[in-house]
Amino acid sequence: MSVFSSSSSSSSHLKIDFLNPMFLHGLSGSLHLIFLFILFISWVYEKIRAKTNEYEPPKHTTSTRKAKVSCYKATLLGCLFLGVFNLVLCFLNHFLWYRNGWSDEKIVTLLDLSVKTLSWFAVSIFLHTQFLNSGETKKYPFLIRLWWVVFFFVSCYCLVIDFVVYYEKHQSLTTLFWVSDICSTLMGLFFCFVGFLGKKEGGENDGNLQEPLLNGSANNGIESKKDTGERTLTPYANASLFSILTFSWMGSLISLGNKKTLDLEDVPQLMELDSVRGAFPILENKLESECGGSSKVTTMMLVKGLISTVWKEVLLSAVFVLLYTLATYVGPSLIDTLVQYLNGHREFDNEGYILVSAFFGAKLVECLSQRHWFFRVQQAGFRARAALVEKIYCKGLTLSCHSKQEHTSGEIINFMAVDAERIGDFGWYMHDPWMVALQVCLALVVLYKNLGLASLVTLVATILVMLTNYPLGKLQENFQEKLMKSKDKRMKAMSEVLRNMRILKLQAWEMKFLSRIQELRNTEAGWLKKFMYTSAMTTFVFWGAPTFVSVVTFGACMLMGIPLESGKILSALATFRILQEPIYNLPDTISMIVQTKVSLGRIAAFLSLDDLPPDVIQKLPRGSSDVAIEIVDGNFSWDVSSATPSLRDINVNVTRGMRVAICGAVGAGKSSLLSCILGEMPKLSGTVKLCGTKAYVAQSPWIQSGKIEENILFGKEMEREKYNCVLEACSLKKDLEILPFGDQTVIGERGINLSGGQKQRIQIARALYQDADIYLFDDPFSAVDAHTGTHLFNECILGLLSSKTVVYVTHQVEFLPAADLILVMKDGKVSQAGKYNDILKSGSDFMELVGAHREALSVLDSVEGGSASISEDGSWEGSNKKFVKKEENGDAQNGKIDDSAAPKGQLVQEEEREKGKVGFPVYWKYITTAYGGTLVPFILLAQILFQVLQIGSNYWMSWATPVSEDVAPPVTGSTLIIVYVSLAIGSSFCILVRALLLATVGYKTATILFNKMHFSIFRAPMSFFDATPSGRILNRASTDQSAVDLNIPYQVGSFAFSIIQLLGIIAVMSQVSWQIFIIFIPVIAICIWLEQYYISSARELARLIGVCKAPVIQHFAETISGSSTIRSFDQEPRFQDTSMKLIDGYSRPKFHSAAAMEWLCFRLDVLSLITFTSLLVFLVSIPKGTIDPSVAGLAVTYGLNLNMLQAWVIWNICLMENKIISVERILQYMGIPSEPPLVIESNRPDSHWPSQGEVDIRDLQVRYAPHMPLVLRGLTCTFFGGKKTGIVGRTGSGKSTLIQTLFRIVEPTGGQIQIDGISISSIGLHDLRSQLSIIPQDPTMFEGTVRSNLDPLEEYTDEQIWEALDKCQLGEEVRKKEGKLDSAVSENGENWSVGQRQLVCLGRVLLKKSKVLVLDEATASVDTATDNLIQQTLRQHFADSTVITIAHRITSVLDSDMVLLLDNGLIEEYDSPAKLLEDRTSSFAKLVAEYSMRSTSSFGNLENS
């Protein structure tokens, strides 16, 4: 325990003297050594025991927060303190005796201290691992407690001896000696207290932190997962001042992340003010008060709103910035004093230690203030971003249709994903402008003190450097804006492609659209290149800035005759180095201010767009009037500026409980009429009144991704009886039985894994479950088969809704007689209104519709009469029918076996996120992507040369200038400056080379990764798009690609450069005292250990940030596409609530990730402070003249930067790991399994294939994914060449799947399909798909022109296109438009009605003239007249083609040559319609009978008219 001074006289006799210091040290050291040995043995034994227990089943741990023994942290810190304390004593004694000579006693003392250091560090590690690995621990290990007792007694013994020696023997003792023994005794006493008297802590009052870690039983698994993070409030909310200062409140989460992979459930909830629920109302209220009554939001208003949300954090961080700036200049201003002190000019006693204390205090304040400045600005940024994103979301919900057309969904998503994110990041740069001014002023003060008037020259030089920045900043701003605009365009095109990928694959257009995306990317890449090279020039200017400023300043000193001394020069260099940071960051700050201004402007413009006017509809309270809907003199227009309104002179009066049908030809304005009742369509004049709540079923089904049950309940509570009743009415029960998880099945994005009919019926169920007063149906029966259509009409409209007000648009005339009022639409007007019989007599428009229907029915009669003109060939018919029956029985068994064998799984899987460390291959792949990595060594070489020249120039200045005025300078003034300037020019040139090379490599890598990822996505099979929400793909194409474009090259570069700089500093410091390594090596070891301890949590938090961003974007995209449905159900508050939950889910990992970073940096700062302080203590302790003062000063100058650099290295490692995850995610998508080849050169069919068009199906089995059940269960049949085959069957029976297999969207699991004898699986996909034609179920149009929609591959002439348009009855419509073939088509073809879009798809088919044509419910969205017209066109132009029709209208398959009836993936019947109708028991005959019964009952009155 004691450290004796060298004056203590040792009585070196052989007899044992119990008062002899040598004996005491020997005893103490031996006891420590024995303890160390026993501890080691105990550790080995534990390891062996752990190995043997490895195979026993683990016991359940019941608590995440383990019950720890008393004062666990304090004990651990005490042990660490004793270790560090003994290390410092060892260190000091070593230098003291190194100078004054050695003796036996000194060697024994030194050994004693070394063994103690080792022992206490070992105890610390032992305790830490004990409590890390074990569960509930009530006591400290017996061995440790025994040791503490021994240690306490030995310490007391030594302290008693001290008094004896001091008072009785009157020997002098050093201060170190007293401090050592008193510390040891006090610590021993503390250890004994906690070891024997301490109570167990962490048990009772842990409150919400006691959560199950592993599920005790299966049933509480879900709850326990939710509990941990979902209900726990962040420890930051209740942390003590010390905990906040040192970020210790993050310890629990980092510790948890070290034991297991963190999930979102583990991340605690944010404080009220940091969550979007706390921040958004503040922003909203401020904007409302600023805007007054107007809807216009200016950039300034938005800024004020955001400041009101985060003003406390901004103010607090400003205080920290001020403290930080003041503290940074204490060091440079003291360097000259330190150099003079080392040179022997000492003002007073202990001046050295006072200097050390000043340096230490300043660095500590600097470290604390910087950490809290960084944390607070990030906290403010997250809060502002969350509030902004929610504001954008709410705006998206209320946008008018006209405003929505101004911005596509892709652009709106960019406001959220990119612009709001950038505004959130602005916090980092917020204080830079005034901080730079303050730093320059302080620098001038320090320089004036050292260099006098030359400091004015410094000011001029600094201003010059800053001015150079202006043109570069302007250029950067310009390029950035262009880059953003081109990115918006690309994202818009990409989101459209992803929405319509199925149609692109079916038509073999995907590579054409990929080339369009690449063209857009090339434009973007042009701006990216300019932006990166401008950035490189900026980097060159600013890395060269300190060198330029110092050259000018020292040159001015020479000219002015100001004497240069090494102390003053070093002080000036340290000042320039501090100035480098703000000046270097200034371009970033300027560009960030510019980018933020652009983003704020974009968001303000978006927030200023027109909302749906709230006064379109007058809402009357429920039950206050008998009139449910009333429109008086209504004129409405989608385009307010248009001369002719879309709907004119609308007068409608609907009383409560009435059924109203709306009919009319395609494009007559039926859907528009519903829109104006909903308040979706801008009103020009008139009044609309609505009494009661409303529910709406759109024509194109809008389904949310999520469970089917969630889609039906749509925010309502579950009432099982009502729910079952609704399922029954919508005939969903059978479908749910087929689905692997029933109503718990997760639906893919936009209901992608459901058939059109299923989506439509879920939509109807959603409306029914709401129990509204008014129901609006927009042609919901078109997407379902005849049988289901009748069922829906009878059960829903005539059944469940018999007492409600129902308005339904329909093309099916048979549903009209049931209506109390029929509105016939023509050219945007109600041409007729009244009851069925009344309007049938009174006008021609309605008669046309009914006449078309009659025509269709006449086919039915002729077939039933057996006079159908069907070529009958008994040979194949009879055999086929027998074959089918046999096949069906066999396959029923196969189906069962197959189902049970297949593990069932959801289609949409959780987003895969890599776990654990980012592998080195990811870095290697990134570094070697461009030019095989050949430029990387040159970049590193340039940085190393820069570092060497930089240090060389500073070394030269400190060596070549005298320490004080009375010493002659070693070289002349001109030599001094010439050498310095040449070294400076050399280092600047190295920076230029480095910056240009880095920009080149970064640009090239980004381009290669983009092309490979997009190629991979476009070549992915359709199953990938079904199972992957587009938000995930868009996230990679926008956020991750942005990171690769703009951040990662600089991040990876920064990491390498910071390491090189750190090595440079260490080299300079070790030049002065190699002994610094004794401190430095353990410090670095602890730093690395801390970084490793931290990184596992940080890495997972960063991945969670990536994974949690996609749901925010996806939910937003879904909301925008379904906004009219959401509004019609008055569900905006619920959707806003969901959005808030998702935004907070994204903010939580972000907030804790930022705090974890500061937790680490604070600890690293403290460690580097220990190194720097040790260096200073060493310098002031050694005798004068041992070391050259100017070189020592140089070491201190560099040492001042040590903490910043050490933190920068670790910061870079972490940021690089976080950012490189973007590369990892892109590489993940580069490895998506590809579809089979587009063309197989060795097996290409000839250009005339298929000549017959005969489709032969043999034992076809299909499932959508390996983990899902079979959908087609062994089909065998032949579709004959040139014949028409109709496919019918219940919704979900496998009709659409059969077609997808024909186009190889889905590959067969077993069996095969041949067309004209060639197996479709043996040829390339494009060779197959380009020879087949399809009119798909969902009509699709792309943004562009009419021409680009009909002929995207540009294969046909204008004449051919016009001919096709005329054939499909759109010629007139297109000729009316201004641009003719070049007239614009908006996103999704929104400016065309659904029926018109269907006709465009017909036009595509007519252009292509294939031998095999598939109609997938192609006439679902058109009225009967248009349907007849389409059928006629097809009969005329595809007379000798094989036409395969999937239809819900029986009439469209009745004139087929063959009918295939599918049921649950099996063939139930396959024959000619006439044969099937002869057999009254056949399922097909029953369907037809039902249809004709329904239709004839509708026409009962028709005969009389």
UniProtKB/TrEMBL annotation:
<dbReference type="GO" id="GO:0016020">
    <property type="term" value="C:membrane"/>
</dbReference>
<keyword id="KW-0813">Transport</keyword>
<feature type="domain" description="ABC transmembrane type-1">
    <location>
        <begin position="938"/>
        <end position="1218"/>
    </location>
</feature>
<feature type="transmembrane region" description="Helical">
    <location>
        <begin position="117"/>
        <end position="134"/>
    </location>
</feature>
<feature type="region of interest" description="Disordered">
    <location>
        <begin position="888"/>
        <end position="912"/>
    </location>
</feature>
<feature type="transmembrane region" description="Helical">
    <location>
        <begin position="352"/>
        <end position="369"/>
    </location>
</feature>
<feature type="transmembrane region" description="Helical">
    <location>
        <begin position="540"/>
        <end position="562"/>
    </location>
</feature>
<comment type="similarity">
    <text>Belongs to the ABC transporter superfamily. ABCC family. Conjugate transporter (TC 3.A.1.208) subfamily.</text>
</comment>
<feature type="transmembrane region" description="Helical">
    <location>
        <begin position="1160"/>
        <end position="1182"/>
    </location>
</feature>
<feature type="transmembrane region" description="Helical">
    <location>
        <begin position="74"/>
        <end position="97"/>
    </location>
</feature>
<feature type="transmembrane region" description="Helical">
    <location>
        <begin position="935"/>
        <end position="957"/>
    </location>
</feature>
<feature type="transmembrane region" description="Helical">
    <location>
        <begin position="440"/>
        <end position="467"/>
    </location>
</feature>
<keyword id="KW-0472">Membrane</keyword>
<feature type="transmembrane region" description="Helical">
    <location>
        <begin position="1048"/>
        <end position="1068"/>
    </location>
</feature>
<dbReference type="Pfam" id="PF00005">
    <property type="entry name" value="ABC_tran"/>
</dbReference>
<dbReference type="InterPro" id="IPR027417">
    <property type="entry name" value="P-loop_NTPase"/>
</dbReference>
<dbReference type="InterPro" id="IPR036640">
    <property type="entry name" value="ABC1_TM_sf"/>
</dbReference>
<feature type="domain" description="ABC transporter">
    <location>
        <begin position="629"/>
        <end position="852"/>
    </location>
</feature>
<dbReference type="Pfam" id="PF00664">
    <property type="entry name" value="ABC_membrane"/>
</dbReference>
<keyword id="KW-0067">ATP-binding</keyword>
<feature type="transmembrane region" description="Helical">
    <location>
        <begin position="22"/>
        <end position="45"/>
    </location>
</feature>
<feature type="transmembrane region" description="Helical">
    <location>
        <begin position="146"/>
        <end position="167"/>
    </location>
</feature>
<feature type="transmembrane region" description="Helical">
    <location>
        <begin position="314"/>
        <end position="332"/>
    </location>
</feature>
<dbReference type="GO" id="GO:0008559">
    <property type="term" value="F:ABC-type xenobiotic transporter activity"/>
</dbReference>
<feature type="domain" description="ABC transporter">
    <location>
        <begin position="1257"/>
        <end position="1489"/>
    </location>
</feature>
<keyword id="KW-1133">Transmembrane helix</keyword>
<dbReference type="InterPro" id="IPR044726">
    <property type="entry name" value="ABCC_6TM_D2"/>
</dbReference>
<dbReference type="GO" id="GO:0005524">
    <property type="term" value="F:ATP binding"/>
</dbReference>
<feature type="transmembrane region" description="Helical">
    <location>
        <begin position="1194"/>
        <end position="1215"/>
    </location>
</feature>
<feature type="transmembrane region" description="Helical">
    <location>
        <begin position="1074"/>
        <end position="1095"/>
    </location>
</feature>
<dbReference type="InterPro" id="IPR050173">
    <property type="entry name" value="ABC_transporter_C-like"/>
</dbReference>
<feature type="domain" description="ABC transmembrane type-1">
    <location>
        <begin position="315"/>
        <end position="595"/>
    </location>
</feature>
<dbReference type="InterPro" id="IPR003593">
    <property type="entry name" value="AAA+_ATPase"/>
</dbReference>
<dbReference type="InterPro" id="IPR011527">
    <property type="entry name" value="ABC1_TM_dom"/>
</dbReference>
<keyword id="KW-1278">Translocase</keyword>
<protein>
    <recommendedName>
        <fullName>ABC-type xenobiotic transporter</fullName>
        <ecNumber>7.6.2.2</ecNumber>
    </recommendedName>
</protein>
<keyword id="KW-0677">Repeat</keyword>
<dbReference type="InterPro" id="IPR003439">
    <property type="entry name" value="ABC_transporter-like_ATP-bd"/>
</dbReference>
<dbReference type="InterPro" id="IPR017871">
    <property type="entry name" value="ABC_transporter-like_CS"/>
</dbReference>
<dbReference type="InterPro" id="IPR044746">
    <property type="entry name" value="ABCC_6TM_D1"/>
</dbReference>
<feature type="transmembrane region" description="Helical">
    <location>
        <begin position="173"/>
        <end position="197"/>
    </location>
</feature>
<keyword id="KW-0547">Nucleotide-binding</keyword>
